[in-house]
Give the backbone structure.
Amino acid sequence: MDWVEVSIKTTAEALEIASNILYDAGAGGVVIEDPRDILDLQRSDANWDYIDEDLLKHAVEDRVVVKGYLPNDADIYDKIEMIRQKVANIGNYGIEANDTTVVLADVHEEDWANNWKQYYKPTRVGLHIVIKPSWEAYVPAGDDIVIELDPGMAFGTGTHESTMLCLELLENHIFPGSTVIDVGCGSGVLSIAAAKLGASKVLALDVDPVAVNVTKDNVKINRVSNIVSVQKNNLLYGIEEQVDIIVANIIADVIIKLLPQSFKLLKEHGLFIASGIIKERADEVRTAMQNIGFTLEDAADAGEWVALVCKK
């Protein structure tokens, strides 16, 4: 299948709204290119072997690019028109979004699925977790928990800051025999981590059929099919079984929307682990958690991202 890459070039303030527009159009995930990350590297004392000077030259702190990928099928023109209309109305939210543009590009699945692999290497997260690409060799230390991953087309290498925050908080808070729901599972990295950290039962959910299939494949690769079940589902709608932990690495607006359902589905003293929250929205999410009846238990941050743990 071929895909259409939809890039929304906008202000940093409009980042989250742009992401929501692409999710609403059917993107299974978004890629965020934030020049602030490049400028932070330039200002840091880190010793980098190579930084593309063109990236530094064009880095403007208040501009970001949010990319999503849509299947190039019969509905693509309607979806693109919807995206353009919503982008044109971003200013109605009271957010500065001058010179926001929508740019399209065709992407061939074979090229996308393979070209980036040379940059994806084993990554240690937290104390014991190691994310290992399925095509890379790695010799684990004695207490390593190795998650073998092939993200395919599902947006989820496990190395994004928001995902690593979730993994670290899972490692800190999961207990043997936990029951877990992973909302928006992507490539399945959080579900697999939960299983390998001692969960007895994990339900991985995603509205994107590509993500569901990729997660199923990765669950088999990691030999946790006896613990992790995967299904296509819109957030938590229709789910009834109560669990010990719900984890969601999405965005602030969706996390706030999930709170009532999560509170209902968590057992007494159950935990909701939420990541994908930009720092500017963290207080808003905390307040929403407290208004539902949750108690804040833990928090972590990395770069522009915040993850929160709250207890029922």
The chain has two domains: 2-112, 120-311. Residues 38-60 have pLDDT under 50 and may be disordered.
